[in-house]
């Protein structure tokens, strides 16, 4: 049985177009495909964790406009409770403009966070009990950072294990990182925080030491096609990723973080959790979109059995 986990983070509507190539400045490119769907790093991670079998409390904020309905419809579709959705009547639901190169699967993304960057102290007070009674709290950097800092401080003081996904990167205080159970940057974000370019085990170990010195307990750095680096103070290794044909890599990091959260909530150790999360991410990149691409638990288990 999985323990209760909370995902505190962003919701935006993904507006995704596929193009033969990503446009250069001032260039107009004719696209081949358009899709609108639920997204945002927090929401993607919450949906991924929930579909993977996690007992998830999803906390985010949306507008009262038509875009907000994309969130509620997506939650209804997968049976994720809407008890901790907050609303802003004055600020629109966030959006993300996503361009995907249909030949390379590379993407460019512009995010306008909108309502999810207006989370207030009153909102946080309403979810305090849920956060404090969770085994894990997962946050990203896509909502207003003052709200993140309050929620993370509250969780740490209650003995909740805090996971910080340092995306999209913005400067963080050492106090915010200190006492975190885990950080999950990609190699670019790891370099932003530590100043160390991560490209192999040795450089990843150096970056991890900077995080350890800042008071972080464990470090995980996603390395794209090279796999994922996992480190405790006693052990570190790069776990290679599953080889699959990617169609759309947009939500891969979110898929990984959501899967990792669910695996930890079921008592898996960091290494087992990373393998489970890699399977989830590998399945997700073979499909279009972000939340619609997140696989079910049955699909993940079947994939792992097949690759064992």
Strand content: 15-25%
Strand order of the largest sheet: 5-4-1-8-9-10-11-12-13
Regions with pLDDT < 50 over 5+ consecutive residues? none
Q: What is the helix tally?
A: 10
Number of E strands:
13
Categorize the overall geometry.
globular
The main pleated sheet reads as: 9 strands, mixed
Average of the residue pLDDT scores = 95
Structural class: alpha/beta
H and E string? EEEHEHEEEHEHEHEHHEEEHHH
N-C termini distance: 23 Å
Helical proportion?
A: 25-40%
Radius of gyration: 18 Å
Briefly characterize the structure.
The chain is of the alpha/beta class and 308 residues long. 36% of the residues lie in helices and 24% in strands.
Structure description:
The protein has ten helices and 13 strands. The strands form two sheets. Strands 5-4-1-8-9-10-11-12-13 form a nine-stranded mixed sheet, sandwiched between helices. It has a four-stranded mixed sheet with strand order 3-2-6-7. Helix 6 packs across helix 7. The radius of gyration is 18 Å and the shape is globular.
């Amino acid at each position: 049985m999985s323990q209760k986990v909370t995902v505190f983070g962003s919701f935006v509507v993904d507006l995704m177009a596929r193009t033969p190539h990503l446009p250069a400045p001032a260039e107009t490119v004719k696209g081949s495909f358009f899709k609108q769907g639920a997204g945002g790093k927090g929401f993607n991670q919450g949906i991924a964790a929930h579909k993977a079998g996690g007992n998830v409390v999803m906390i985010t904020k949306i507008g009262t406009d038509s875009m907000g309905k994309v969130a509620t419809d997506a939650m209804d579709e997968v049976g994720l409770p809407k008890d901790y959705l907050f609303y802003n009547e004055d600020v629109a639901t966030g959006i993300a403009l996503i361009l995907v190169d249909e030949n390379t699967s590379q993407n460019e993304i512009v995010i306008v966070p909108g309502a999810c960057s207006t989370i207030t102290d009153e909102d946080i007070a309403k979810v305090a009990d849920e956060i404090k009674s969770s085994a894990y709290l997962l946050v990203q950097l896509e909502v207003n950072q003052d709200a993140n800092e309050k929620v993370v401080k509250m969780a740490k003081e209650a003995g909740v294990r805090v996971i910080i996904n340092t995306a999209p990167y913005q400067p963080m205080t050492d106090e915010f990182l200190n006492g975190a159970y885990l950080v999950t940057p990609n190699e670019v974000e790891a370099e932003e925080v530590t100043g160390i370019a991560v490209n192999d085990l040795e450089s990843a170990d150096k970056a991890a030491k900077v995080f350890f010195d800042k008071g972080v307990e464990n470090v995980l750095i996603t390395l794209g096609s090279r796999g994922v680096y996992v480190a405790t103070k006693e052990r570190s290794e790069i776990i290679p990723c599953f080889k699959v044909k990617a169609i759309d890599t947009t939500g891969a990091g979110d898929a990984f973080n959501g899967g990792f959260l669910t695996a930890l909530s079921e008592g898996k150790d960091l290494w087992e959790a990373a393998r489970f999360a890699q399977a989830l991410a590998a399945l997700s990149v073979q499909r279009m979109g972000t939340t619609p691409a997140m696989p079910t638990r049955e699909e993940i288990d079947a994939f792992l059995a097949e690759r064992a």
